[in-house]
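Milestone M4 deliverable, item 7.
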Amino acid sequence: MNNQVFYIYLGTLTNQNSYSIREKEEVMKGRWNQKLCAVATVSMLLSSAPVGVLAQENARITQSDPEEVYVDIIGDGQRTTLFNENWKFHRGDINDAQNKDYNDSTWETVNLPHDYSIDQDFTTSGEAESGFLPGGVGWYRKTFVVPKKYQEKQLMIEFDGAYMNAEVYLNGTKLGEHPYGYTAFAFDLTEGLICDGETENVLVVKTNNKIPSSRWYSGSGIYRDVKLTVTDKVHVGYNGTKIIAKDLENTKDNNVKVDVTATIDNDSDTNKTITVKNTLLDAQGNAAGSTVTNEVELAAKSTKDVKQEVSVIAPKLWSTEDTNLYTMKTEIVADNKVLDTYETEYGFRYFDFDNNTGFSLNGEKIKLKGVTIIPLEMYIDENGRAKLEIGVCRGKKNYDKRESIAKKDARRKMDRAIKRH
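Output delivered:
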């Protein structure tokens, strides 16, 4: 059905500088009256007009056949995508929540990153380091469908951070654990994933923040991004490149040699002959140095480190004022087809710590500004004098003995010592 379209010209106020303030008010008032009249007229016309007025003569209403539309899990040409939206969350421990068919319909829907401590009530039963906020157990569940075209691909889930004691399950099967709360980790999803374009997969994460667990506020739960990576069976591994500029301090104005080590995984069931290609790109995406290639033989279900050397003439150095970054583009090629492309940002810089002159970056002295969280132990010596030591743990028995010496005088001297330091 073709609908007629009404266009209403509401007009504009021109030559405003030629009016006085009162004249402007009168003109604007008149213009608004015209607009309101026009809108009211059209509204009445549309509300009272029969359908035949809007439809063309002999017009027919047609309806197309129903069509199934599948939403892809990643964009064309993408290697990695964020996996942050539409997770189900439950605070507190619960039985069988890792099972695929568990009913999570009453759970809260959240987007990551997420912290389930920050929105709780402050409590004196907590500790200062946690901000007097509780931790505890949190459960996350995400349901997703994977199209058939990924049946021959390798899929990995990557967590930039989850605090803490993370347990990860796929379709009811435990993939593994990651106890530490401040490092990234990943799990291969391929073996347990259903890729038929119809069946729902369920990814489950349980975290448990057993306070006290930190010397500062950590939060609880999946507090950083989660990413899904899709690759060929032959691909660069997780965190799979290591880049080192050799002797940069002495060669920075000439030809700089760069060691590139790429970890290549062959997750297929057959041996593969591939070419590993590394190209250094500048900020504009142009080649900034030499391109190197090596042919490599990979056994089935194996991993190999491939070391190459790239050279670049007088690279721009990274500093706190000029944050120049380059990109190392690593490509895996087989039969003239690029199987995987992995990009690593890299900044050329060198630094030094000297016990006389301090810290220097690219040969320039820089003051480090900040604070220390190294434990400071204050105690009283045998003469009743306050002592301050850094990074020392002397044991509770000795501490209790020193603390018992002249407590009142010690407190006063400790306060004095704190002011001095």
